[in-house]
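Hi R.,

Here's the chain you asked about this morning:
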Amino acid sequence: MHQPPFRLAHPGLLGASGATTTFAGPDCCTPDAASRAVPARRRLPLSGFDTRYHCSLIGTCMTTSELRKLVSKFVAIDRQQASDLDIHHEAVTLATAGGDGCKALQKALDDRHALAIRRFAAAKSAEAVQAMWQQAQESADIPGAYWATMTHPASTVALRQAAFGDVHMLSHLVGAANRADIQRLMALEAENAALRDKIDAQQLRLQQASVDKAASLRDAARDIAALRQRVAQLEPSHRDETTHDIAALRAVLAERDEAFALQADRLSAAEQRAQTAQALAEQRDKTLETALAQLAALRAETAAMEAALSSEWEDDSTMRQPAALHLSGQRIVYVGGRPGPTRRLKTLVETAGGTFDAHDGGIEDRKGLLAAMVARADMVVFPVDCIDHDSMHTLKRVCEQHGVRYHPVRTASVASFVELAARLA
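And the predicted structure, written out as tokens:
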């Protein structure tokens, strides 16, 4: 088995309080000296981390636009022309080297995630920090929580390595979801192409059979006309012989008619099979269109979730915040959905500075409360897969009466809500 890119904490490396103690291994397999020297009562600075953590911390907890402004102050690099990878590499080099560049990165990280640091300060033990980290993962609040967890005084080596592993696996999960959708789409396209080839081949065979039948009929008509002409020209003495030939010819024609009837039956059966195949192909086309639409929606939701997790939204000239951060100061009413995802959405919106009110559509909450909640809202959101038709029509009517925007989302998942927030932003 290959060694993973991060190492698990050895039980002998932790003291009773969870702080790091003496390391017995060689230098290449242990955290650096600065990490061991930070007292347990203080937050771990960026310079105190093992250098293997710098790439994950900087790439996850800072945006590329912030790094472009900061790195160019300490490194001779064209911040407009340099690639994202070059900027990231120089930032990690500054963190590894220590000095003023590392201090500037430390200050930028602390300022950016001050809210998360203050929230995690309430945790007084490694177990409490781990619980808050798990809650942050469920609510998709990764960057600030990751920095607060890694630098918390109560965090142990094992907890920091676990958090590092969680962030490391997020990119694999997102990539695996996209690959599965693409594989299903490719399979549908291949099946559809095979059906179309089969239909084309059957149509060619039917056309050829029709041409052959028409040619045979023309040959038979020409032979009959020739025989009739010969009979008319024969003397009476030869008519008996001609009559016998005509009878034989009629027998041959009867056999041919039977063969034509058999071919007609086969042609009719082939046409029915072709119609069935055509209907199946049309059904496959509809299935393919549905799959493409679902794939586009899933890709949009995956991109929005990935952007929210990495916090790297920018264009060529200005920096933009993640979609969730554009909810600051807004009151959102969420109607329908399921309890678990609804709680995560509440945490996500309130973390972004907004206000979140939920109504289950009349299952337990009274429908009479819905009009009052909508009247105070800036925006109403409801999942179309988890709300009854009566509540949905009532909600639309109330929103139109009060002039409040309403937005349906595809599912009651956190990803659908984050994709809507990104699209509105």
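Residues 68 and 83 are 10 Å apart (CA to CA).

Let me know if you need anything else.
M.
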